Amino acid sequence: MISLKRPKEIELMREAGRLVAEAHRRVREMIEPGITTGEIDAAVEKLFDDAGATPLFKGVPGKVPFPAVCCISVNEEVVHGIPGPRRREHGDLVKVDTGCRLNGWCGDSAWSYPVGEVDALKQRLMKIGEENLLLAIRECGRKQRWSEVAAAMETHVREAGFSVVEQFVGHGIGREMHEDPQVPNFVSSQLKRHDFRLEPGLVLAIEPMVNAGTKNVRILKDHWTVETKDKKPSVHFEHTVAMTEAGPEILTAL
Ligand code: MG
Ligand code: MG
């Protein structure tokens, strides 16, 4: 069941969202050749801890509980990569996804960062991925139902010659990180059955994942990391977005 948030609750979600945005600002400052994904994760963990916020990803149940505060996925890794001692090199494409709960309310955001300068394919993939997220947010203010937004997202990616990941989708968010509804970045028969209205009080984590090659992905032996089957790069962009009387508002921005 979809729970709509009151303006006062959205105000609290704005605080959580701002902290997640601050984490991303910190990540952007840190990312350069030689840094490890573990160092990035430790910096975000400290930032949340100093603010009295609870990280949302650490301990998420699975075959092994997720061990870190950020999912950090590199190049052909799509989502759910585990931070560690790997040093990042010039030309890597690093996706950082993180979230926290502050005063009982959640924020969730992901961004794709270049390490030094990335090649032309990765640059174009990043451009299309970011455009795709911003297009979705803009369309939320113009369309009545999510399926119309998802159709626009899907068309935008297809016209660029890239693929939309279908195995992972966005979600409602509030007191919990994952709430109803599911928010796919494409139109499926499932979405047609579970379509929803874009009305004030709805808060969504919108998170397109775009692959340079095919949409197919697989999960690695660590039980978490998702990578493209064809080993071509992938990007991920996510904001927590509130529908308000004044239109869509990005909560995970500074
Ligand atoms: Mg996320
Ligand atoms: Mg999310």
Number of helical stretches of at least 4 residues: 5
Q: What is the fold-level CATH name, i.e. the topology?
A: Creatine Amidinohydrolase
Structural domains: how many: 1
CATH architecture: Alpha-Beta Complex
- The CATH class, by name, is Alpha Beta
Shape: globular
Record the strand order, biggest sheet.
8-7-9-14-15
- How much β-strand is present in the residues? 25-35%
Q: Pick out the low-confidence regions.
A: none
Cα gyration radius (Å) = 17 Å
Bound molecules: magnesium ion
Mean pLDDT: 98
Query: What distance separates the N and C termini?
Result: 30 Å
Helical content (DSSP H or I, runs of 4+): 25-40%
CATH homologous superfamily caption: Creatinase/methionine aminopeptidase superfamily
Outline the biggest β-sheet: 5 strands, antiparallel
Strand/helix succession: HHEEEEEHHEEEHEEEEEEE
What does this structure look like?
By secondary structure, the protein is of the alpha+beta class. It has one domain: Creatinase/methionine aminopeptidase superfamily (Creatine Amidinohydrolase). The chain is 31% helix and 26% strand. It contains five helices and 15 strands. It has helices spanning 7-30, 37-50, 120-140, 146-159, 189-193; strands at 54-55, 70-74, 77-79, 93-102, 105-114, 163-164, 170-172, 179-183, 203-206, 209-211, 217-219, 226-228, 234-236, 239-244, 247-250. The strands form four sheets. The chain has a five-stranded antiparallel beta sheet with strand order 8-7-9-14-15, sandwiched between helices. Strands 1, 2, 4 and 5 form a four-stranded antiparallel beta sheet that branches. It has a three-stranded antiparallel beta sheet with strand order 3-12-11, with no helix packed on it. Helix 1 (7-30) packs antiparallel against helix 2 (37-50) and helix 3 (120-140) packs antiparallel against helix 4 (146-159). The longest helix has 24 residues, at 7-30. It starts with 6 loop residues before the first helix and ends with a strand. The mean pLDDT is 98. The site of one magnesium ion has 5 residues, from loops.
